[in-house]
Fold:
Amino acid sequence: MERRRFLQIAGGGVGAAGAGTAALSLWPKAQEGPRESRKVSTFCELCFWKCGVLATVEGGEVVKLEGHPAHPLAMGRLCPRGNGGTGLLYDPDRLQKPLIRTGQRGEDRFKEASWDEALGYVAERMQRVKAQHGPEAMALFTHGHGGSFFTQLVKAFGSPNVAAPSYAQCRGPREVGFQLTFGTGIGSPENTDIANTRFLVLIGSHLGENMHNTQVQEFAECIRRGAKICVVDPRYSVAASKANWYLPIKPGTDIALLLAWMNVILTEELWNKEYVAKHGTGLEELKAAVKENTPEWAAGITEIPVETIRTVAREMAAAKPAVLVHPGRHVTWYGDDAQRSRAIAMLNGLMGSWGSKGGFFLPGGVEVPKYPGLPALPKPARGAIDGAGTRYPLADETLASGLCDATMAGAPYQAKGWIVYGTNLLQSLPNPKQTMKALQSLDLLVVVDVLPVEIAGYADVVLPECTYLERYDDLYAGTFKTPFLALRQPVVRPMYDSKPGWWMARELALRLGLGDYFPWQNVEQYLDGRLKAMNTSLTAMKQAGVAVYPAEEGLLPENHKFDTASGKIEFYSKTLAEMGVDAVPRHYAKPEPPEGHFRLLFGRSPLHTFGRTTNNRVLGSVVRENEVWISNKVAGELGVRPNQRVRLVNQDGAVSAPVRARVTNRIRPDCVYMVHGFGHTSKKLRFTAGRGASDSELVTRVDVDPLMGGTGMQNNFVRVEKEA
Structure:
């Protein structure tokens, strides 16, 4: 299928979103009559992919966004969200001025303040937290490229407690699983050579719906090239519609399927023998461990036919080494997710796909020197409170959920001040009621955001950041097939009294006596100082937007040493064995739904990112609310009609807002599914408040991964009640 046609199908209304930019007229015209047109390079922040953008500006108004043709992640195209970025820029509900709380925390009552008053308030209370509890009692939750300056601020203040929810709530288990096997994680963007693969396996990975731009374009290319595709998913997704084999697996049984595939490959001697002999260790231990994990054994667990399991394993092996068992992105499911990710890594290792064309390329990068004269950051007097490296021994990033838990428990010590940058923790962390309790225990809560999201209603101070189209951020050194360096720069001047994050962080640093860590007058000076050390300049980067470096081969060197204890691909992990846990992954039964309940699954929409885009008038005009997918069989038994409003009630009594039923034969009858990011309760988000339902409110039980602290969130169950 032609790539453009596939993107139209996957996007579910790309053209409509683009057309809506002009039609909605959300911002008054800067001038009438003919207007000068110019194009400005930057990169996107509607999701974490950070695609290169060319913005067309006419008379001070952004009228069009398109993919930067030279940017390796955009390749001249944007996804629907990227095309709809003007909906954020011109959102009439944007935060406009600094706010200081006047009511009780959570009442959403504020007074407008000057920047001097608001920043003075924050600095004074940070100093108070430091005096009473130590600098480590300040914590930063950050999501988005602009958070780097706040990271510098909080670390200079003396705190190690800096976390992004993307680790423990999303991608962390796969990093640990691949580190245990290959000695390195996957990174972002993933080092997957989808375009050149001959056999692609997607396990709960919804390419075409999660809309990671580069991967979706490469997915279209692998389809065009005739690659074989196997999709494993309880729901018939967009990706499943492109598959040669669709396996509607019983949720919670993925490890059993992976073990059975390895059993077939090993017993029939189908693995990449030369590659494994040269680069692997522990093969005999793996053979012994999976000896009993036959397709017959797995079929009874996964509800996938024996011959299908065996056929897919053989077809996969026939395509080696150009095989890609995709590691996924949002992989915090059941609490044993690092082991599931390790099984995926081991299967790729048997195929010889690491460092092979059509498998996982070895990415190249470019090093950007630090700004000259920056002092070393202070060493915190106390370690982080999240449990990474202690309770969760293999976690190598700070756990956002761990910071929240420790704030509640007060052990090993309590965080008393939070700065929350660009992440609505009441949707991004599971069990929002627990997060609300943690918020009530704080002496200081600062929220930095563009929109009045729910957590802003609990803040002591709200600082309005200008959008990514109105600001500079730090340089982005992309690690990819083709190394690159990208610049985010203002496309238009900031609206209202909003400010960029770099400015806020530096101003706070000056008030806190930490100016030595921000030894530049403005961000242009900072960026130019770093770029000149690379024999270029800010002037040159503003013109080009991206500097692309020579592509690297990306293939495994002959005598490559893996960064594992053995220096090889580890099919049997002595590290895990010494910890007293399974050195080879094993399948353990997961909780079953109570009578009359269904497992709650959730995912992404091609037009929406988390909860950041649902108030966007451009994107929301195409997809205004989410739905709950219910199988035809279940809907018939419950008497639920298509589009009828229902409520979901989970096993702990949490009740969702009314949500429309999507009655379909594209989902297993033991599951329901909904898109994440809807069900906003902040009335200041006038376009999206009260539309759809929030899956976060229904995730009240979490199974924490003992290896790395990831929050397994798909062991929650709901019953369906018809709305009167």
Notes: Confidence is low (pLDDT under 50) at residues 1-33. The longest strand covers residues 37-43.
